[in-house]
Design goal:
The protein is α+β, with helices and mostly antiparallel strands. It contains 10 helices and 14 strands. It has a 7-stranded mixed sheet with strand order 3-4-5-9-8-7-6, sandwiched between helices. A 5-stranded antiparallel sheet has the order 13-12-11-10-14, with no helix packed on it. The chain has a two-stranded antiparallel sheet with strand order 1-2. It binds biotin (BTN).
């Protein structure tokens, strides 16, 4: 959005629904009334519902359901999503954010897209990313971490997503973190997190934290292979979710969580992670960890984010990546 339109929008927001005359806007902004009208037209093209005409003044009556930077901006955040790149469509926001990171984008630079044509999931899977209903966002991070410590960032992000999702529901008990990167509602996948890294020797050069949250997608819209296992916040809630409010809330929580992680590591977040993590004590199977599935009892999470699993013979295995399925009830 150009600066003039942004300033008109700001003035209309400040008026809080009251009409602003073309004349007052023109003198406040130091531009002609014709220029004010042009900016109003450009706001309308962007989807803002601006009532009125040049003679009778203008009032803001509705915001577009788009994750525009001007809607997601929040001065209370210090570093995360201060720089926001909004795309109507892209293949993958993780790909775009990696490119920005390679070009020198600062930590916290954020990409958000209305639709992804090749949304990436873990283990080479895809992430279903239809237009204008969900949140697809990727954040550039430049953490001071070794490669081995980095996976715990995913768990930190999962805490933020779980808290944001729970904040939208009536009953937080419906929300669960499925190690390592999914957030579930009533056992169904609602969000996935994909972290991709560039390494410099043993340290993280930059990390891209990609988060997809199913907010308003209908369950029927999911491709068949996901339908049985996936849901959205709106399907769980029974009404639409305000995507802008959700994204702003998530970015705010995420900034706080990542600050804590940077200061004191994942241990500082255990108290916020554990309520969402119901795996300890359960019999599980981990796929993709080795040639054979690993079967055992989930013990908990190590400081670096690894899952600790106890085999039947009592030996304890640390799992860094893999897919978990619950094979039994808690012991
Ligand atoms: C998974 O479920 O395995 C992870 C899914 C991560 C999806 C998000 S959507 C935003 C970002 N861009 C991508 O291409 N993927 C992540």
């Amino acid at each position: 959005m150009n600066e003039g339109a942004a300033r008109v929008l700001e003035a209309l927001r400040r008026a809080d629904g009251a009409r602003c005359s073309g004349e007052s806007l023109s003198s406040e902004l130091g531009v002609s009334r014709a220029a004010v009208w042009k900016h109003v037209e450009s706001l309308r093209r962007r989807g803002y519902r601006v009532e009125g005409a040049a003679g009778g003044g203008y009032a803001l009556r509705g915001l577009p359901d788009r994750l525009y930077p001007e809607e997601l901006a929040d001065d209370s955040r210090r570093w995360l999503a201060r720089e926001i790149h909004h795309l109507e469509e892209t293949d993958s926001t993780n790909r775009v954010a990696s490119e920005l990171a390679r070009e020198g984008a600062p930590s916290g630079a954020t990409v958000v897209a209305e639709r992804q044509t090749a949304g990436r999931g873990r283990l080479g899977r895809s992430f279903f990313s239809p237009a204008h209903c969900n949140l697809y966002t990727s954040i550039v991070l430049r953490p001071d971490l070794t490669i081995a410590e980095a996976p715990s960032l995913i768990l930190a992000a999962a805490v933020a997503v779980a808290e944001a999702v729970a904040g939208s529901l009536d009953d937080p008990g419906r929300v669960e973190i499925k190690w390592p990167n999914d957030v579930l509602i009533d056992g169904l996948k609602t969000s996935g997190i994909l972290m991709e890294m560039s390494a410099e020797a043993t340290r993280v050069g930059f990390a891209i934290l990609g988060i997809g949250v199913n907010l308003n997608v209908d369950r029927d819209a999911f491709p068949e292979e996901f339908r049985e296992r996936a849901t959205s916040v709106s399907a769980a809630l029974g009404r639409r979710v305000d995507r802008i409010a959700f994204a702003r809330g998530l970015y705010g929580i995420l900034e706080g969580v990542l600050d804590l992680h940077a200061q004191s590591g994942f241990d500082a977040l255990r108290g916020r992670f554990d309520p969402w993590f119901r795996m300890p004590g359960r019999e599980i199977e981990v796929y993709g960890h080795g040639p054979e599935p690993l079967r055992g009892r989930a013990l908990g999470i190590a400081a670096d984010g690894a899952l600790r699993v106890q085999r039947a013979d009592g030996s304890v295995e640390r799992v860094i990546a893999g897919d978990v399925s619950l094979s039994g009830s808690p012991r």
